[in-house]
Design brief:
DNA-binding; mainly alpha; elongated; 7% strand; two-stranded antiparallel sheet; homodimer; Arc Repressor Mutant, subunit A; 9 helices; 2 domains
DNA sequence: GTATGCATGTAATACGTTACATGATTGT
DNA sequence: ACAATCATGTAACGTATTACATGCATAC
């Protein structure tokens, strides 16, 4: 029997990277054991909806997490209507979640997944030590500065070939990244201040 | 013969919404007729890489656009190595591209696809009338203001249930949206000023 | 007795990602 | 002789999206 990277492989070796949605679900369940429907409500009623909503993504994600034994049903009631399955992360699930929170912030994250970095920060309170939170903020600052410099350099060299609107759009990107950078600097100080 | 929504249907009725990538490709080809490889270079060497790179997404997108008759091969040379296929949007392709640029900016766009709105703005220079560009900026301002108000309201009501990091993360979202709003206001003035 | 909300799910589809394949030309 | 670059693609896989299905309870 050969182990190729198919669905069999996936259920046996659960080392694949979890998706953002799966990690957020783990985070919400760590905060409070609840059923899939309550999870959905939290997605639609909070800024989390920026990331996902719709049962068609959440329930399959729950099924995957359960197959991977990262969450488990702690009890199933019949509050009203159909049965409800109260879910909770297993200890493996908690480990995976912590691992997600502690991942280093790379340049790739800043270019393609800045929102996910912020999500990780949002969930880090209470689940990892303050030192990890500060490290994430430091790495974020560093990579933001680097990428902003990249973009500025591009603007300077490509100015003549760009249309006005093209130039202005990139400018907007720079300004948004600068807003993130200022936020990171301010928040870092704030967290250190609170610790004292 | 029934017309269900399968791949046959797709090639017959080409009214499906194009993906962001497909629209960007149309935009780049409108700017200059070129081959797929040159397109890729523009993706990796400019801030467009934020949206995509990798031949595995670009070539299939080109194939789809060709099947839909939105682009066509204008000539194929043998500059060096393998044949190169110089591509250009057809008149249907130009129409589809203009339609993308002129789409109204909705709340959903601001919540889930702000980057795409900026991309549309970036490409609008030269391809649609100034009035359309101003309208996009106005709609963008309106929806940004609305969504910022939503987020502020959420922050005010949910403050006690949120962790500190959760609160700060949403705060960061607000600040980024505010940066976009300030940009939109400034740019609108700038464009009006240039017209005079 | 009909609509709405709770609660869970499935099926079809399409796209992006990753990895791989191919083959000619240019530089060393 | 070998590597890198040009240039175009395919195959496998996984996930999100959309739409639909189900069935109980409550309110009108």
């Amino acid at each position: 029997m050969r182990f190729t990277r198919d669905s069999t492989w996936r259920t046996i070796v659960t080392m694949r990277r979890l998706t953002t949605l799966e990690n957020v679900i783990l985070g919400l369940l760590r905060g409070r054991a609840q059923c899939g429907y309550d999870l959905r409500l939290q997605f639609v009623a909070t800024p989390l909806r920026h990331f996902s909503d719709s049962p068609g993504s959440i329930y399959p994600a729950l099924a995957r997490l359960r197959r991977a034994k990262l969450i488990a049903i702690v009890r199933s009631g019949h509050t009203s209507g159909r049965r409800t399955q109260i879910l909770e992360p297993t200890s493996a699930g908690k480990d995976a979640f912590r691992k997600w929170l502690s991942r280093p912030v790379t340049r790739a994250d800043v270019v393609w997944n800045l929102d996910e970095v912020l999500l990780r920060f949002a969930f880090s309170g209470g689940f990892v030590e303050k030192a990890v939170v500060l490290r994430i903020l430091d790495e974020l600052q560093l990579e933001l500065e680097g990428y902003i410099a990249e973009l500025r350099k591009y603007l300077a060299t490509a100015k003549d070939e760009l249309t006005l609107t093209g130039y202005l759009a990139v400018q907007q990107g720079v300004e948004k990244y600068e807003a993130s950078l200022r936020w990171a600097q301010r928040v870092r100080k704030e967290i250190v201040r609170r610790a004292a």
